[in-house]
Specification:
The complex is a heterodimer. Chain A is α+β, with helices and mostly antiparallel strands. Chain A has one domain (5-137): Histidine kinase-like ATPase, C-terminal domain (Heat Shock Protein 90, 2-Layer Sandwich), CATH 3.30.565.10. Helix content of chain A is 31%, strand content 27%. Chain A has three helices and five strands. In chain A, helix 1 packs antiparallel against helix 2 (36-57). Chain A is globular and about 45 Å long. Chain B has one domain: Transcription Regulator spoIIAA (2-Layer Sandwich). Chain B is built from four helices and five strands; from the N terminus they run ββαβαβαβα. Chain B has a five-stranded mixed sheet with strand order 1-2-3-4-5. The chains are: A alpha+beta, B alpha/beta. The A-B interface holds A 15-16, 18, 40, 44, 47-48, 51, 55, 96-97, 102-106, 108-109, 111-112, 115 and B 24-26, 58-60, 62-64, 66-67, 69-70, 87, 91, 94-97, 99-100.
Amino acid sequence: MAMTETFELSINSKFEFVDKVSSMTKVMADRITFDEDTTGWIDLAVREAVINAIKHGNKSLEAKKVDVKFIVEPGLLTVFVRDRGEGFDPTQLPDPLDPENLLNPAGRGIFFMRTFMDEVEYSTHPDGGIVVRMAKRLKV
Amino acid sequence: MSQLSIKDREVGDVTILDLSGKITIGEGSVQLREAVRRLLDDGKKKILLNLGEVAYVDSSGIGELVSSYTTTNNNGGHLKLLNLTKKIQDLLMITKLLTVFETFDSEASALDSFK
């Protein structure tokens, strides 16, 4: 494997396209030789990021794009998901583990991303929209 | 192609929904919500969700399990879970929802618990 490889895809804001991203995530994780369980959790984290980008970022406006970029390095997968939304403050989200939020049907997507990835951070893209960067290291 | 297949059967006064496929955002979540709603509308208030053949759940799917649970409770019913896969068990554990749901590995024990 080359030292660093980059793969990109762009989807319209429709949930049925999440499976395309998911297929690519599994191929990327496989290149880094993550085990099956870890690959499943990475896939879930990426799906949650893409779903948030479609639903909350792009407000499900189908023509708005979600860009996904994978950077594959030995022992490290980094995934960027960019929406075309107006952003939000990730520090202001309710804690899904707070007893008063346990029965809230929503609000667990970012929690899953933070649980299953080693790093999750948000930034504003210079051309607009929010980018979430997630990274997962291979444990040896 | 349907994401989620739901078959229902009755054992005594308990309705078991055998789910197979994916409970994810979109169709799978809506199907589960509608199936539970229909049972409650028919006055069937003891509901057991058999998740043994559910291959995939995302945060929306977890949300739908929670909604199904609260809707059933609010209608004076009981909703319990049967045959959690390892992944669903892990997700319910990290979200502390194992403290909320009654879960069973055996259908007979689950049925007994409704008596």
